[in-house]
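User: Modeling request: complex.
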Amino acid sequence: MTERPSLDQDQFLTVLSREEAVARFVAALQPKPLGLEIAALSDLVGRVLGRDIAAPVDTPPFDRSVVDGFAVSAADVAQASEAAPVMLALNGETIACGTLPRLALAAGTATPIATGGPIPRGADAVVMVEHTNLAADGRLVVSRAVAPGQNIAFAGSDIARGETLLRAGTVIGAREIGMLAAVGLAEVEVWRKPHVAVISTGDELVAPGQPLRPAAIYDSNGPIVAAALQENGCDPIRFGAIADDAALLEATMREAHATCDAVILSGGTSKGAGDLTYRIVGSLGAPGIVAHGVALKPGKPLCLAVCEGKPVVILPGFPTSAMFTFHDIVAPVLRTLAGHPERAEVTLTARVPVRVPSDLGRTEFVMVALAETASGRVAYPIGKGSGSVTAFSQADGFVTIDALSEAMPADTEAEVTLFTPHLTVPDLVIMGSHCVGLDAVIARLGAHSLTARSLSLGSLGGLAALRRGECDLAPIHVLDPATGTYNRPLLSPGMDLIPGWRRMQGLVHRLDDRRFAGAVDVPTAVATALADPACLMVNRNQGAGTRILIDQLLAGAKPPGYWNQPRSHNAVAAAVAQGRADWGIAIKPVADANGLGFLPLGPEHYDFAVSAAPRAPAAIDAFRKAIAEAADALKALGFIPASEAP
Amino acid sequence: MTERPSLDQDQFLTVLSREEAVARFVAALQPKPLGLEIAALSDLVGRVLGRDIAAPVDTPPFDRSVVDGFAVSAADVAQASEAAPVMLALNGETIACGTLPRLALAAGTATPIATGGPIPRGADAVVMVEHTNLAADGRLVVSRAVAPGQNIAFAGSDIARGETLLRAGTVIGAREIGMLAAVGLAEVEVWRKPHVAVISTGDELVAPGQPLRPAAIYDSNGPIVAAALQENGCDPIRFGAIADDAALLEATMREAHATCDAVILSGGTSKGAGDLTYRIVGSLGAPGIVAHGVALKPGKPLCLAVCEGKPVVILPGFPTSAMFTFHDIVAPVLRTLAGHPERAEVTLTARVPVRVPSDLGRTEFVMVALAETASGRVAYPIGKGSGSVTAFSQADGFVTIDALSEAMPADTEAEVTLFTPHLTVPDLVIMGSHCVGLDAVIARLGAHSLTARSLSLGSLGGLAALRRGECDLAPIHVLDPATGTYNRPLLSPGMDLIPGWRRMQGLVHRLDDRRFAGAVDVPTAVATALADPACLMVNRNQGAGTRILIDQLLAGAKPPGYWNQPRSHNAVAAAVAQGRADWGIAIKPVADANGLGFLPLGPEHYDFAVSAAPRAPAAIDAFRKAIAEAADALKALGFIPASEAP
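Assistant: Request completed. Predicted assembly structure:
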């Protein structure tokens, strides 16, 4: 009998509600700011003030002129006008900025004063230079009356000495720095930034920049968590990605716990490593683990611990799960340690056009992309799964489905929490099948001052979205078996087709696979493959144009591997290159990128379905132009622009 | 004859419209990003991507399991159910994360696989561990069917090799860092940050942290501009505050221009220094000054130059003017040099309850504070003048009045541009006369989980705002001459008074002023002062309670200085301390802070007018409690809580 793997750990979790998990974590930690430190004015942007600041001086520190002109006694010029100007003797000094007046102002006199100059004793107003002239006898001619106090900023009128200037807890920006500088403070007490250890664990992790071993993946959680810590007022201390070596992991975790204010682990995706990590966390100090398993989706495996007064958190291994749990549960606590105010969430309302199923009993976060459509603002769920990291960048925010709901019904007007407060709505929304050629076209939209967002929904998903008015363009490549033509037969009434490009499809195999050495074309290669029961194929998903071609080639046969049905050319090429399959049908650029042999079969048509009465006709025109402008780039990628196709 | 001061420079300006000034600046500079540099993943937060990034690998790089369970051939378990489970033989390996499968999966078998493990050859689905059991004979019991592809993430399904992952111009945050890490990129090309020289000029400037000379002020523009540069993607290079020394200033400006990508000067408030600066800018290279004088309020003296391809800007000296012109005119150009996207402004609509006069022919920015009132959201203009730096912190944003308007009429529904995207509406809005004692009370509101904003409008301004429902509390200290009592006679029907505290008022004089040496009380001191025509008083503004007392004391006399009428106790004390006047009436804590002699006159009552039917009764109750809790702090400040007053 083989060794039974340790795979059932989830069964031992006591899954807590989100609220209960947070309550236990907070009760065990009692989070509060860690302490104060002195920071200089030049290092304050983004820091949080630790104490109320009272102004140590009046600002301005003296009564000063706010114009260029002449200090006077207002009573002297109370009757002055253009018709009846008043003559004043000029005093023998000019009050510039930064110079103290030497002479008191006597009745019937005026003293030249610059903006910012201190008002001399005896003056109670300033006449603007524009309302004066110099007489031939050297006296000043004042042609406009001024009221007492006019054009004077009195001492303390901006900030009075003793007044509270800024309050503890204020996040410091340029405005606050100006206030501190104005009262002469060169440094202030701010909350110390928590030093937070970031540890990734798992044999499968490779640091970015290193070559990727077979079966390994790059450590993305470490860099994401480090960046998210920076965005939440903490200093990340990177301990790198640690393999599943008990001694090394324990030594690293002990050092991190001893030297940092908090420890964040992310468990790779390996449960074996997880077991080890949980055991070590349990040994770092009381009270230890307070929650392991939280009714969140994504994020159920989250583990929260407090060891000797410091938070120790094990985030789920999948990036999306890690980030949602970090932001929802961990960041608020770390912000408190950092003295940062609660994160101000920006939300808006949008219609979710499709039904979103949800697990009863778990609070579920669903990422959405926003689009302004003919039918209003729409939030489109991005269903890439918690293993995805691209979902985050395509999403504008997320909707939350209550633990008591089994689904969010289609057309719900949902509250969307934005990832960043500034929502940039793209000019063109593109939903359908993705192609690297599309990237080349989108890259040229910038020259037309247009932005686009592309979401991969597959050809049929894109057509459905276009039909509902949720996107502007649907890139498709669907073969109609009845007519043997691509794309056009799929259009609904009221849709047009913008020609795109052709992508040469063919049979891919490893170059060192002797079985295909003699195959001169696809039919001979397929015959060879079918003759060998050890020869595994990789298929494509139902609905793909390529799948229809494959079924035609197989003529009813269902050889081994037939049920292996990935959704993309890239997955087919990867399966063959990595030996999980021996042949499949994919496009030539992808075969080339994977170093595979390629027997051409025929061109797939990649075109764009569009409404005949589009929401933004000028943007659609620009998109047509961008396709034409991208012709050379498309050819360099191995595609044939439709305009140049036979 | 005295030397005529050089004060008329504004008359030589050719004032351009805002649009014309921007157009000339942009035409002369042709701003574009400065260049690319390589930055490591850990240094990317807030940087701007310089090139489109195509994924160099598929993510995931192989077909992987998204659950803990058993890799199978879906066809084998197509009929499995609780009632009719399917038995499979277990293969002799467990596929952990990071380990390459050694064995191909044959029909009728299953291989244990962990979440993230690579799918073995021959498998096309994964059964979750929860849907399996181990039979006594060591075989796997599968009690749930799986579809082909189920629980598998196919290679490239998240990011396909060659796909554009991120586009040039993207501002990088945690999400983007995760994507770059996931495809193994340890560094990327970002736009280089412009190095921008920051120079303050003026004899009157003192660096924060240094003692303040008489007639000098602290340099706040230097620190504000440096921080605003950081907030706009630039690296500030501080050249400090330079006195009006032609040789030093020219050397500094030449070095700044030679070594930095841009130069920002702020001219103190001195026009003499200004003349010098303009001349030097003119000599730094072609084309030189392109706009000098822009029809903006505040901000008219703004000077824009381009010298040998680098922007050189002279900001107005007053902090508010400097910041509005920086953000409106200069920041957009610097953001382009930094490769940063246009700043996304967040705006909202609010009613401006009062008429705001505006200069015809100048685009005017008026700072406003927002409040949620009984009559909806109100934007209250903060009329502190361009010399103010506190206005910035009390304001939530600003309204813009068109150059063609002479005023914004009262009750305009205006668009408010927010300074920060997150608007925090305070629980209590306090408008009226300010007192450092009020700061002590507000400091205690935090313990009641309340926030407050206090705006200084004077007692009568506060009462008017309360009458209009624009604030919750109006702190007032107004003597009714008819009854000789404070505050209560001023209330309108429907207002109540919350008792505050008493502030001892008295006559202040310099301790070394021999004339007051023999004065035993205020009447004898006033008699002494009136007897000496060289003895200058400082009065208070009309409407102040203290003014009524002063007029009673003077009994109709109007001695020298009577028309010098500042609006605060602090200004009175500063005028006496700095020798601009010899006596005045102020409160004792302010006299003490300024080191002045004090002859007590009588207590001023500082109380809070409030609506009898307040918008937020619980917050008002908390405020009453906070006054009681602040009793000791008030006494330490020299005040007498009303509850302890005779």
